[in-house]
Design a protein that fits this description.
The complex is a heterodimer. By secondary structure, chain A is mainly beta. Chain A contains no helices and eleven strands. In chain A, a hairpin with a 2-residue loop joins strand 5 (42-51) and strand 6. By secondary structure, chain B is mostly beta strands. The chains are: A mainly beta, B mainly beta.
């Protein structure tokens, strides 16, 4: 079945450590997105990519990094520079023309301990 | 920059009744797309309905319909015959029509809808 897969579902990180969240899609979508969801804040865009080997910062990119080496993969690294990384992270993909539906993964809950 | 505003953080509706969720947006574009997404307790985002700005007719999907007021930049979602399974967080979203490097999907803060049995 086609879809978008995020892993792991739950992730625990010690302060000062970098951690990478995985996002893979087999929908042949060009565009991929990372959002952060906090209570009362809605979905805030971290990074997005419209094509392979190209990506743009979203509204809250500080402390995060991404890569887009393959069309189907868009991993997000939460670095130690991110001041408050505990949150729910959602990955999405869509065809390059955004008038079509965006598909979302099931999310990763990151907790810093 | 485009912004999407959902000013009501929470709403409640009686089962079988009708409820309207509000959304306003700001853009300088004349053509664009608007969406309502649903996030149930499982947290899996699901598309509810989509509206193309150049279409005057309001979109409808079964019990879900929108009231699109382009001049007022308003995009409300009406849920008729509310069911317990409609309880979720609902997000309004905007996207420009072009697929350039800076094209992105912008969301509002969401509204939590509860359904009373």
């Amino acid at each position: 079945d086609g879809g978008i897969t995020q892993s792991p579902k739950y992730l625990f990180r010690k302060e000062g450590q970098n951690v990478t969240l995985s996002c893979e899609q087999n929908l042949n979508h060009d565009a991929m997105y990372w959002y952060r969801q906090d209570p009362g804040q809605g979905l805030r865009l971290i990074y997005y990519s419209q094509i392979v080997n190209d990506f743009q910062k979203g509204d809250i990119a500080e402390g995060y990094s991404v890569s887009r080496e393959k069309k189907e993969s868009f991993p997000l690294t939460v670095t130690s520079a991110q001041k408050n990384p505990t949150a729910f992270y959602l990955c999405a993909s869509s065809r390059r023309a955004l008038n079509t539906e965006a598909f979302f993964g099931q999310g990763t809950r990151l907790t810093v301990v | 920059a485009q912004t999407v505003t959902q000013s009501q953080p929470e709403m409640s509706v009686q089962e079988a009744e009708t409820v309207t969720l509000s959304c306003t947006y700001d853009t300088s574009e004349s053509d664009y797309y608007l969406f309502w997404y649903k996030q149930p307790p499982s947290r899996q985002m699901i598309l509810v309905i989509r509206q193309e700005a150049y279409k005057q007719q309001n979109a409808t999907e079964n019990r879900f319909s929108v009231n699109f007021q382009k001049a007022a930049k308003s995009f409300s979602l009406k849920i008729s015959d509310s069911q317990l399974g409609d309880a979720a967080m609902y997000f309004c979203a905007y996207t420009p029509p072009w697929a350039g490097a800076n094209s992105k999907l912008t969301f509002g803060k969401g509204i939590t809808l509860s359904v009373r049995p």
